[in-house]
Specification:
The complex is a heterotrimer. Chain A is mainly alpha-helical. Chain A has one domain: ABC transporter involved in vitamin B12 uptake, BtuC (Orthogonal Bundle). Chain A has eleven helices and two strands; from the N terminus they run ααααββααααααα. In chain A, α1 runs antiparallel to α8, α3 runs antiparallel to α8 and α5 runs antiparallel to α8. Chain B has two domains: about 170 residues, P-loop containing nucleotide triphosphate hydrolases (Rossmann fold); about 60 residues, no CATH class. Chain B is globular. Chain C is mostly helical. Chain C has a single domain, classed as ABC transporter involved in vitamin B12 uptake, BtuC (Orthogonal Bundle). Chain C has a two-stranded antiparallel sheet with strand order 1-2. Classes of the chains: A mainly alpha, B alpha/beta, C mainly alpha. Chains A and C meet through α3, α4, α9 and α11 of A and α6, α12 and α14 of C.
Chain lengths: ~280, ~250, ~350
């Protein structure tokens, strides 16, 4: 039984990690906590849902479209809103993104009603794999594998490509980066777009097994903060470890204490960890 | 033997493997103006931070008026009578000049009226009284530095530690700061001043302590320090010193 | 224009005038619905003022104030329901508990930098929610129906059709909170809190025990938030954890205060007016629950404010006044200091 819990937690944790990576990059490069990050997830889930409902597209097929859409939304987010608050004191930026979160959630509710939707017939729905005593749902497994692949893709991009290094440079010291000829404006926009795309991909994966409704992204946004705080902002591998830890914590918390406590466990872990490691477990 | 007001004993400050202060020892007597000089990166501000409680020294002791203040929290050290200012001035921008000084005055009084009275006195002493209602954020740099000192004075210190009070000022302004320091000394205050501007600190200091690369390399009256070989070497570099000796 | 400028110059007069106006309106306008709206307006304005004390003055951003709101609501309700204690006493007890919890919980968090502290407060708020959802003694997720008691001031229960007494109670609390905020702002504590907010290092260097004062501010803020929570429970006669501990409430408090203007006594009043009246009247215009239009508008307003005028509406007003003053100065006798 325990192994089942652990594996479920691990799979969810990998998905959380992908969500958190985008948030971590945003935080590390722009020094902004994007309260609307969870909404990227929600929007991509709706994208997957509508493409499925209207055109019978399997979410795995519509994934690139969803990713692209949220990539664009992230980019626009930067250009229209975030750009204006990037140099403002911390609270202002938090509020701008929280306002966006409020806006997105309620626009979603306005246009698509608060009703919970499901994508009920994908290529992996209801399929399972059995490994010994552990049963893995196919949708979750694919999502987890897809997520960890994406995390490494992003990691590779950030550490090995020229643009990726420019992003790192900007994250460490934006003024010096500018002096070195890096167009920080473009970097900021790109970072937010990538963060969006990452969340978009995670959302597409999740839509194969998770209900779709306007508030669906909120909790993941919140968990994202905890994960980033644990992993250290700007630290992608940290986000991966953080995601896994939180996924496991949530699963074990639910198992030992009951599902109503699972988030309380996660938040408690956050409070305890930052006491001893104010910059996160692996923070800069 | 009268106990010195401030005794710094073997203070060492390490950041990981970087040694910013290395067994620095010196003292400041009551009523003195002691200058703390040294090339950039010598560790002067780090030493300030160690003395005033913003850092806890890795080794060594700091004793103020007989009390061991090593590692004590800054606000407690201020309460004991040792107040410091900052190299990069920290005015409370959204408050007026008078309100800034009042905030300092509240250390010893509790009501607004008393704080206002105290602040008024200090503003006169530091020639800021006609700017009293101006927002601190809108002052010139010279006035901001003056405000920094005024606010510190409002805490009624026995000893004041000034961190580069003359940096960025023109000649007239430097003279004003010098005059202020001397008049504070005449009023019974003890001063320790970090400074780069030699024309500003040498004429008014009773003694000067020189730091280089984290270590104290000289401690004496200004005339002696100015001619000290090690000091000249530290500021001008080995090669220049060797060259100037040759000629 | 001149009158308004005079009023704003002397904050005391301005506040007094505004308070009188707010106090008279529900008396003059007999509509029950309007009175309900006024009650919610004053309630949220009160919450904003209380929050302002820790965030606006001391600079420690709290996203978890619903925790104190909920503690207040539950404390007085449980005392009334299980021990027949008057809500007035229950209110004080709730306030004290909230203060205590606030100090214990925030003390280890003060050393955290801005973002981390904010998220920590959020975490605390969520933990509170989860705790109360699972706590059987207070009926968990089912919530508590407040027992009907003899009508009157002692039990803080009145005939539900008569909203006026409820209004005057929350109005009283509001006036109390505004007064406390005003007194703090002008006192030693106010100066110290503002110094801590602006520049904690400078504050320490002039003898301010930053931790002690942050704790004071937190204690006061939590206490006042809790007593409003107690009132809320008495007004709506039913509470459950999702009503009183929700992140939604914490964020509403944050948003309305910042919208109106942080660190300023008029701020929460203006912000609450916008929040409450907008939500009320979009409902009237669009019917039903207004389909969340009020929140869409509110979200939009918050984003626009954050981007263009982070000092809130009060900041906007100040800019306007300063501009007018400069214009007058150019044409009139110039009086440029220093």
């Amino acid at each position: 039984m325990i192994e089942q819990v652990a594996v479920s937690g691990l799979l969810m944790g990998l998905i959380y990690a992908l969500v958190a990576v985008g948030l971590s990059l945003t935080w590390g490069v722009l020094d902004i906590i994007n309260f609307a990050h969870g909404e990227y997830l929600m929007l991509s889930m709706y994208t997957a849902f509508w493409l499925y409902t209207l055109f019978n597209m399997d979410p795995y097929l519509s994934l690139p479209l969803a990713a692209l859409l949220i990539f664009v939304i992230g980019y626009l987010n930067y250009k229209i809103v975030i750009k204006k608050v990037i140099d403002a004191p911390g609270l202002t930026a938090l509020l701008a993104t929280f306002g966006l979160s409020l806006l997105f959630r309620n626009l979603a509710q306005f246009f698509w009603t608060p009703n919970i939707r499901f994508i009920s017939n994908t290529v992996v729905t209801d399929k399972k794999i059995e490994l010994g005593s552990v049963v893995l749902g196919m949708p979750q497994l694919v999502a987890a594998i897809g997520s960890i692949i994406m995390v490494f893709v992003i990691y590779h991009f950030i550490t090995k490509t020229k643009i990726g290094k420019a992003i790192q440079a900007t994250a460490q010291d934006k003024n010096t980066a500018r002096l070195m000829g890096i167009n920080t404006e473009k970097i900021y926009a790109l970072t937010l777009a990538i963060a969006g795309a990452a969340a978009g991909i995670a959302g597409s994966f999740m839509s194969t097994f998770y209900p779709v409704y306007p508030e669906s992204g909120m909790m993941y946004g919140l968990l994202g903060f905890v994960i980033v705080a644990l992993g250290g902002f700007g630290n992608i591998i940290g986000a991966l470890y953080g995601g896994i830890i939180i996924g496991l914590a949530e699963a074990f918390g639910a198992y030992f204490l009951g599902t109503q406590f699972k988030y309380a466990v996660v938040f408690l872990i956050y409070l305890v960890v930052i006491q001893f490691k104010p910059r996160g477990l692996f923070g800069w | 033997m009268v106990q010195p007001m401030l005794q710094v004993d073997g203070v060492t400050m390490k950041f990981g493997s970087l040694v910013a202060n290395n067994r620095v020892t010196f003292h400041v007597n009551k009523g003195e103006i002691v200058g703390l000089i040294g090339p950039n990166g010598a560790g002067k501000t780090t030493l300030f931070n160690c003395i005033s409680g913003f850092y806890t020294p890795t080794e060594g002791r700091v004793v103020f008026r007989g009390t061991d203040i090593t590692g004590m929290k800054p606000h407690l050290i201020c309460r004991l009578g040792l107040t410091r200012t900052f190299q990069i001035v920290k005015p409370l921008k959204e408050m007026t000049v008078k309100e800034n000084v009042m905030t300092g005055a509240f250390l010893h009084v509790n009501t607004r009226r008393e704080a206002e009275e105290s602040a008024d006195e200090i503003l006169e002493m530091t020639h800021l009284e006609d700017k009293r209602d101006q927002l601190a954020g809108s002052l010139t740099i010279a006035d901001k530095k003056r405000l920094e000192v005024a606010r510190a004075l409002a805490t009624r210190p026995d000893m004041l530690m000034l961190d580069e009070p003359m940096a960025g000022l023109n000649q007239t302004e430097v003279k004003e700061v010098m005059e202020l320091c001397v008049s504070l000394k005449e009023n019974g205050l003890t001063l320790m001043i970090v400074e780069h501007i030699m024309e500003g600190i040498m004429p008014i200091a009773d003694r000067v302590v020189v730091l280089n690369a984290g270590e104290k390399i000289a401690e004496d009256v200004p005339e002696v320090v100015v001619n000290d070989e090690n000091v000249i070497k530290a500021y001008l570099g080995e090669r220049y010193h060797a060259q100037s000796k040759k000629s | 224009m001149v009158i308004i400028r005079d009023i704003l110059k002397d904050q005391k007069k301005g506040i007094a005038a505004l308070l009188v106006l707010i106090g008279l309106l529900p008396f003059l306008i007999q509509d029950n619905n309007f009175r309900h709206v006024m009650i919610m307006f004053v309630l949220f304005a009160a919450l904003g003022q209380a929050w302002n004390i820790i965030t606006g003055y001391a600079g420690q951003t709290s996203f978890g104030h619903a925790a104190f709101f909920g503690i207040g609501a539950y404390a007085s309700t449980v005392l009334l329901w299980k021990f027949d204690v008057s809500p007035w006493i229950g209110m004080l007890v709730g306030g004290l508990i909230a203060s205590l919890v606030a100090c214990v919980v925030s003390y280890p968090c003060f050393k955290l930098s801005g973002h981390y502290f904010a998220i920590a407060t959020l975490a605390i708020g969520e933990i509170m929610l989860q705790l109360f959802v699972s706590w059987e003694y207070v009926e968990g997720a089912t919530g508590i129906m407040l027992p009907i008691k003899e009508k009157g001031l002692w039990n803080m229960q009145f005939h539900p059709a008569n909203k006026l007494p409820y209004f005057y109670i929350i109005y009283l609390l509001f006036v109390l909170i505004v007064s406390i905020a005003y007194i703090i702002e002008r006192s030693k504590m106010g100066f110290y809190l503002k110094a801590i907010r602006e520049n904690p290092d400078a504050a320490m260097a002039i003898g301010i025990d930053t931790t002690k004062y942050k704790l004071y501010a937190m204690a006061v803020s939590a206490f006042l938030t809790a007593i409003v929570g107690s009132f809320y429970a008495q007004y709506v006669m039913y509470i459950d954890p999702f009503m009183v501990f929700a992140l939604r409430i914490s964020m509403q408090i944050v948003l309305l205060t910042v919208l109106g203007g942080l660190g300023n006594i008029f701020g929460p009043i203006i912000g609450s007016a916008i929040l409450i009246f907008m939500s009320q009247y979009t409902r009237i215009i669009l019917g039903g629950t207004g389909k969340g239009i009020d929140l869409i508008l509110f979200g939009l307003l918050v984003v626009v404010m954050a981007c263009y005028q982070p000092n809130g509406i009060v900041g906007l007003f100040r800019k306007f006044v300063a501009k007018r003053r400069r214009e007058v100065g150019v044409h009139g006798a110039a009086d440029v200091a220093g």
